[in-house]
Specification:
alpha/beta; Rossmann fold; 12 strands; two-stranded antiparallel sheet
């Protein structure tokens, strides 16, 4: 399943526009908050795919029957760029456990790179719905490597991958290597630079959110 948010005309397009705008990006707090907003919207859309159960709630005037999620998903993110998007998901799934991954690109002199996973701190994913949040889905290599690492340890019932902006190549890479995954994307861009940055994209999401790396 592939869901692309900006295929529909909604207020979310305003948040995406502000994230891409080079002038508005200078406001780090707004840059992070817009990612949160998109995370909240994508979390709402994913919530439609969860299993539900009927419960009764006592109001001051009587009893109401409502359907609520049968369980909370586990949320995951790749540090550090994915943190604001992850926070948006936490705002919606406020009882969810979280998984945190540290990974980076190890670049060779040729310009080629491999993904180095340094650390995974995870909740129990056995029999769980897992949602991995990563702001930029460029080549898709890090997402695939992280998910395969976790799937080798746990039998998940469902896998969802959420990103603010993805490249068309990255989407195809994930769909080829993780055919069971459901993708939830804010917008898909067609191009990447030789250094695998998405074009037009929005730049380095981690630097824009938290300051430039040394």
């Amino acid at each position: 399943m592939l869901f692309v948010l900006n295929n529909i005309n909604t207020v979310c397009n305003q948040f995406l526009t502000e994230l891409r705008d080079a002038d508005q990006q200078q406001d780090r707090m707004r840059f992070r908050r817009n990612q949160e907003r998109i995370g909240e919207i994508l979390a709402y859309e994913i919530s439609k795919e969860l299993k539900y159960k009927a419960v009764e709630v006592q109001t001051p005037l009587g009893t109401a029957q409502v359907n609520i999620p049968a369980e909370q998903p586990v949320l995951g993110t790749i540090l550090r760029a994915g943190l604001p998007l992850h926070q948006g998901f936490l705002n919606v799934f406020d009882q969810a456990a979280s998984t945190f991954i540290t990974a980076h690109r190890k670049t060779k002199k040729t310009g080629e790179f491999t993904i180095q996973i340094e650390h995974i701190s995870t909740a129990d994913l056995e029999g769980k719905t897992f949602i991995l949040c990563d702001t930029m889905l460029a080549t898709g290599q890090s997402v695939v490597q992280v998910c395969k690492e976790l799937m080798g340890q746990y039998n998940m019932t469902a896998l969802h991958i959420a990103a603010v902006i993805a490249s068309a190549e990255g989407v195809e890479h994930v769909r080829a290597h993780l055919p069971m995954a459901h993708l939830w994307i804010g917008a898909i861009d067609e191009e990447m630079t030789t250094k695998s940055y998405i074009v037009p994209g929005l730049g380095d999401a981690g630097d824009l959110a938290y300051g430039e790396k040394i």
